[in-house]
Amino acid sequence: MVENWRFFKKRAPNAAIAAVVKADAYGLGAAPAARALAQAGARVFFTATFGEAIRVRKALGEGPQIFVLNGPSAKDVAQYSDAKLTPILNSVAQIKLWDARAGAGLHIDTGMNRLGLGPEELAQSMVALKGTSLALVMSHLACGSDLKHEMNATQLKRFIDAASLFPKAPLSLAATAGALIGPEYHFDLIRPGVGLYGSGGLDADNPQLIAAALIEAPILQVRDVEPGESFGYGATFTATQKMRTATVALGYADGYLRSLGGRGYGVLGGAKRPILGRVSMDLIILDVTGCAEALPGAMVEFLGPNAPLDDIAALAGTASYEILTTFAGTVRKTGARA
Ligand SMILES: *Cc1c(COP(=O)(O)O)cnc(C)c1O
User: Fold this and answer.
1) Do 234 and 165 sit in the same domain of this protein?
2) Which of 191, 206, 310, 320 maximizes ligand 1 atoms within 8 Å of its Cβ, making it the mutation to test the pocket?
């Protein structure tokens, strides 16, 4: 992830490169990820929740700035200053709750309609914001994953217009994908998350980022099977010729999505070994015909440099984000790479 962070630093040489470590750093482990990225030079971190931010503060000690994207709630607002956390204020209600305590970020909605203040709420909040020193004014792109989507330019224009109300505040619009659109999206700070962990976050043509999440699992058994034999629950695959198969200790309980049954692969001996039939709770059957390395105990790669995140996500019919967070516990056990 450190090399990926540097990739963004090269892409956006005039911006600060934050690190988004929400959802336990997309399942890789927020504390080790934040420490590695801080060591590489990251000075600004984003979490989704107050609880995550507290854990990241513990891991990093004082110094780096930690923004909480979901903003303060009545339950935690009083505790921000102790841990030196900076909330993102997303609504009129959160601005009231924060009550100009200290530095905060402000989220302007430019078209995603998820979090942030729309034009009317912004106008209505200008007085209340007077006493708040704004550490950041940010927005988020709805369609950054499609670099050519017309909504990107629309949101860029709305962001520039709204941000002109805050001439002194640092500005931030782009996450991973947005940073890849072009320099006009970089402003003062970019906020890559998934890019640090190995995916460009794009619908197509992902850049070659380095795999930070590794999933490997051992072969438990190897079998030689005859034509006509079928495999696994539902007997959904039947051999039409002699085959060698390997049963591997990985399944959907480990986060290996069931939708990869009959579509995914493991990598062994330098080649892709297709999944035969369904993914079980703790087991997968692979076609290892002709693979000399297929022996009990051999480790098969299911996610990593040879089984790229974006490829696996496409085969599963989902986004790289969901692959990472679904795998979460397993990646922490088998290998997240700094
Ligand atoms: C999750 C998130 C990011 C990081 O997005 P990636 O696509 O993973 O880079 C940045 N900003 C906001 C507001 C987010 O919610």
Assistant:
1) no
2) 191
